Amino acid sequence: VCEIEFSPFNGGRYLCSGSCDHTIRLWDVETSKSLHVFNGHYWFVWCVDISPLQSNNNNNDNKSNSIGVIGGNGYTICSGSFDKTIRIWDIETAKQLNIFQGHNGYVNSVKYGSNELKNTILSGSNDYSIRLWDIQSGKQIQVFNGHTHSVFTVTYSPFVIKDNSNSNVICSGSMDDTIRFWDIRSNKKELYVMEVGEGILGLKFIKLKKKVNNNQNEVNDGSYVNLCYGSNNGLIRVWGC
């Protein structure tokens, strides 16, 4: 099993897994049962993600055990494989909806966008590139080149470019010992490069609460964004942004 991802809906009840047996599987965490098997890749499925799209029905029941509740709301799964493709699957029918082709190496990381970027997917590959895809058209929007080794992890960052209210910065980590930030509106040179001296295998942005010491009493004073990353030397590091 190469990667697992919990559903962002129904309280994380559903679990998606990608495997070296070339399949993606959807599991019910409460019952430990396999709900669906997604077949189509012909090599290792290295990365998976579940769409963040939410139901238009406000009467969501987190205790519902009907997978039809998910599928009927348009939820999908995306997967990246050593077969160099990214595939989109209907979470209810287990049918393949689309296939994205363009990478010239293994696909190591896939991520769905959210909010104004909800119709996009981000991918990173052994071909040293990051690519942005349009889900509806199935076409590549941008390709970002600059890394000098395999890109193992990609994510959408919470940062924005000055004079723009929308989140439009993406982040990538590579075995070239760098973390790079890019403007999704342009495939020009990266915005910023962090040279960290170790190969990056995973990264994630998290919000941590600020605490100040006031007369020996800790007081919550808002929150701030941190970048966490794991490297090939066995360490996990947290950077304040």
Kindly describe this structure:
The chain has 241 residues and is mainly β. It has a single domain, classed as 7 Propeller (Methylamine Dehydrogenase, Chain H), CATH 2.130.10. Helices cover 2% and strands 51% of the residues. It is built from one helix and 19 strands. The strands form five sheets. Strands 1-2-3-4 form a four-stranded antiparallel beta sheet, with no helix packed on it. The chain has a four-stranded antiparallel beta sheet with strand order 5-6-7-8, with no helix packed on it. β2 and β3 form a beta hairpin. The relative contact order is 0.10. About 6% of the residues have low confidence.
Short description:
With 241 residues, the chain is mainly beta. The chain has one helix spanning 67-71, and strands at 3-6, 14-18, 24-28, 33-38, 45-50, 76-81, 85-90, 96-101, 107-112, 120-125, 130-134, 140-144, 151-156, 169-174, 178-183, 192-195, 200-214, 217-231, 236-240.
Give a topology summary:
Elements: E1 3-6, E2 14-18, E3 24-28, E4 33-38, E5 45-50, H1 67-71, E6 76-81, E7 85-90, E8 96-101, E9 107-112, E10 120-125, E11 130-134, E12 140-144, E13 151-156, E14 169-174, E15 178-183, E16 192-195, E17 200-214, E18 217-231, E19 236-240
Antiparallel strand pairs: 1-2, 2-3, 3-4, 5-6, 6-7, 7-8, 9-10, 10-11, 11-12, 13-14, 14-15, 15-16, 17-18, 18-19
Pfam families: WD40
InterPro entries: WD40/YVTN_repeat-like_dom_sf, WD40_PAC1, WD40_repeat_CS, WD40_repeat_dom_sf, WD40_rpt
Keywords: Repeat, WD repeat
What key attributes describe this structure?
globular, 51% strand, 241 residues, Methylamine Dehydrogenase, Chain H, WD40_PAC1, repeat, mainly beta, 19 strands, 4-stranded antiparallel sheet
